Amino acid sequence: MHPVVHTLVIGVISYLVLIVIIRLSGKRTLSKWNAFDFVVTIALGSTLSTALVSTQVSLAQSITAFVLIVALQFAITFTSVRSRRVKNLVKSQPTLLLFQGRFRAETMAQERVVDAEVRAAIRENGIADVERVYAVVLETDGTFSVIPEAGDSDSALQGVAGLPTS
């Protein structure tokens, strides 16, 4: 088979199979990225790329690789829901960057976040005064959650690293 024809045929079939596999694997495969999700996505992309341009790799091998990557992703996420140790290995912990209107400079330095990024997140939430923000959390996917005011409890902050105990 001519290499261009190979790329067209294998590309279309691989792409369609990959879509079916991802749809069957559930929403977790397409969730916001953490480091683990990033690796899975890169692995899938690399496998698709190899399937498209390499005449040395068969369609069966490509499909097997797709299924293997998604199956491993499923197994690890399934296990991480049931095992704290696996969960801690796969996912990072959300981190408190600002609490009761005060920046947590040491934590921000550890997370490589500057105050301008936190201020931007606060502005995006329509808040003008940093001092009026109860908390800003760096989530496991790299986004910022801004909590404008304290509630009766800090239940939404449970599991966030750096939360002072009272």
Automatic annotation (TrEMBL):
The keyword Transport does not apply. It comes from the Bacteria. Its main location: membrane. Gene3D superfamilies: bsu07140 like domains (3.30.240.20). InterPro entries: DUF421, UPF0702_alpha/beta_dom_sf, YetF_N. Residues 12-78 form the YetF-like N-terminal transmembrane domain. Keywords: Cell membrane, Membrane, Transmembrane, Transmembrane helix. It is a multi-pass membrane protein. It is found in: Cell membrane. Belongs to the UPF0702 family. This is DUF421 domain-containing protein.
